[in-house]
Amino acid sequence: MSYKETYNYWLNNPYFDDETKKELLAISGNEKEIEDRFYKVLEFGTGGMRGLIGAGTNRINKYIIRKAAQGLANTIAKQPGEKEKGIAIAYDSRRFSREFALESALVFAANGIKAYLFDSLRPTPELSFAVRYLGCAAGVVITASHNPKEYNGFKAYGSDGGQLPPNESDKVIQEVNAISDIASIPFMEEKEAREKGLLEIIGKEIDDAYMEALKKVSVNPEVCREIGKTAKLVYTPLHGSGSVPVLRILDEIGFEQVTVVKEQQDPDPEFSTVKYPNPEDRSAFELAMDIAAREDVDLIIGTDPDADRAGVVIRNEKGEYMILTGNQIGCLLLEYILSQKQKRNDLPGNAFAATTIVSSDLTERICRHYGVELVTVLTGFKFIGEQIRLLDDSGKKKFMFGFEESYGYLAGTHARDKDAVVASMLIAEVYAWYKSRGMTLYDGLVELFNKYGYYKEDIDTFTLMGKEGAEKIQAALETLREKMPHSFGQSQVAAIRDYQIGIRRDLEAGDTEPLNLPRSNVLYFEMKSGSWFCIRPSGTEPKIKIYYGVSGNTDDSAREELHGLKQDVLSVIKPLLD
User: Fold this and answer.
1) What is the pLDDT of residue 45?
2) pLDDT, tens digit, for every residue of 251-290?
């Protein structure tokens, strides 16, 4: 059907409720809005299915949630022995998150698949843990992570507790796309599902087991107990699901001087104290920084609504508060974990760490120093989770730590997704460890750069809404592929990696070699100076992102190199997006 035919189908079919029809009637004269809502069906990307809340096939609503749930149910039903294992479901503090979670559970129940539904909001990493703990066939989290309040989403997890990798998500997508009539999706009433044992509410048992698993990841618990008595820090959950588990784990490992930002402690789908709840954004920490300044606190930790991302604010040498980048946090944690395990003779000979192609090159330097293998994957933490399954679960190697530049970290194998709860615990531990040496976290960052070199990274994001925006993003990438530029301004290109065709091309020698990663619409430019940049569209949002990475012998030289690279790259790419 055309977008207009689909619009009319939703308006006239008695399956859709009056509230949905009222919303659609309100846009009856707005052809562009109708087209944007119905020209496509939301697809699974790097984070699953995510979109604006509202009526339509290109929006998140209970009908699209039911369709996604049915697609997952159909996929599981085709795998012998999986249907009986059930599906775990969690949700965050966003609008309709509880309702969408229940909608999913009752679709699963109608398909004869038991749903384990958390009794209240929980972090995404705890869902990942719960899937493994309960031995489920799959998991679902209703969340839009750090997106603005207008968004929600559906994230699907496999039996290993990791987000579905491409081959598995493709199966779900095929099943979802095969559902031609949303009104045909089976649905069970909650009372019946409970009576038949197809809906079970879970909570405290999983919470307690999750906490115990986190504490096993601590490297120097004795430092936490000693320094945690007096070391002060501020924590904000940014109105999300991190409040209870983060405060609990910090307390249980020995941090007694934790101040929570009260205005941001309770769940709030409006995220009323922030522009949007993203711990990458300094403005999200304004209230926390006010408290930290009054109480003379050197460390602030913040988690996003589903508590899979963590941000950190520290004091620099001038006493000013500065937000660390995801790369800086990840590299501080990696250095700490590897150095301390080596010191304790607890670093396995087959140890490995994992990161993404757009994360800092400093990661490779740290791993090389400790003789640890670094596995590099595409953007998206599901690829890191996949490596844990392939390498650690099989007994070939031992996973130490994984991170991506977008503020996602994981230590331990209790979960297979980024975990801001364990990250918060480890960040506090690193803070205590430096404090035990008479140093601040800023001192630790400087020590890291002095040891390995000054690495700097940055990112530019361009949002292009609607069908027209998606077409512009695609056209920009096609133009770069066709022209294969040898330079961007004054910056000369040495090689181009095109992950869509799986080829790296050396521009000087003309040689090509295969890229042993899944196909993805990503272009990566290696510059003759040793710097790099990468351009990729978001898999879940109407955005295109440009990542940059440079290094230098001093902070100033690296900063200058980064500034020049960004100017050169944007002089070519920005006109393609206008």
Assistant:
1) 57
2) 999 999 999 999 999 999 999 999 989 999 999 999 999 9
Residue 55: burial class (beta carbons within 10 Å; 0-12, 13-18, 19+): buried
Nearest Cα to Cα of residue 268 among 123, 121, 407, 423 = 121
Q: What count of other Cβ atoms lies within 10 Å of the Cβ of residue 257?
A: 14
Contact (CB, 8 A) for 162 and 416: yes
Nearest-angstrom CA–CA distance, 470 and 537: 9
152, 142 in Cβ contact below 8 A? Answer: yes
Q: What is the pLDDT of residue 470?
A: 85
| Strand residues in 40-198 grouped as ranges (E) | 49-52, 87-91, 115-118, 138-142, 151-157
Name residues of the chain where pLDDT drops below 70: 44-47, 539-541
- 548: its two tokens: 């940059």
Specify the pLDDT at position 47: 56
As a three-state string, the secondary structure of 263-332 is HHCCCCCCCCCCCCCCCCCHHHHHHHHHHHHHHCCCEEEEECCCCCCEEEEEECCCCCEEECCHHHHHHH
Burial class (CB in 10 A: 0-12, 13-18, 19+), 138: buried
Residue with structure tokens 């898999």?
Answer: 539
CA 115, CA 138: separation in Å to the nearest integer? 10
Catalytic residues: 145
Q: In whole angstroms, what is the distance from residue 296 CA to residue 291 CA?
A: 8
Q: So what's the pLDDT on residue 14?
A: 94
In order of 145, 312, 417, the CA distances from 381 in angstroms are 13, 19, 6
Instruction: State the sign of the Cα–Cα–Cα–Cα dihedral 470, 476, 479, 481.
Output: negative
Tell me the backbone φ, ψ of residue 4, rounded to 5 degrees: -70, -40
Could you tell me if 455 and 362 are in contact, meaning their C-beta atoms sit under 8 angstroms apart? Answer: yes
Q: What per-residue confidence (pLDDT) applies to 465?
A: 82
Helix (H, G, I), strand (E, B) or coil at 463: strand
Q: How far apart are CA 433 and CA 339, in angstroms?
A: 12
Residue 543, classed as helix, strand or coil, is strand
**Is the distance from CB of 15 to CB of 182 less than 8 angstroms?**
yes
Q: Which of 488, 528, 531, 482 is nearest to 508 (CA)?
A: 528
DSSP one-letter code for 199: E
Please tell me the predicted confidence (pLDDT) of residue 43: 77
Cα dist from 16 to 11, 12, 451, whole Å: 8, 8, 62
Radius of gyration of the chain (CA): 24
CB 54 within 8 A of CB 63: no
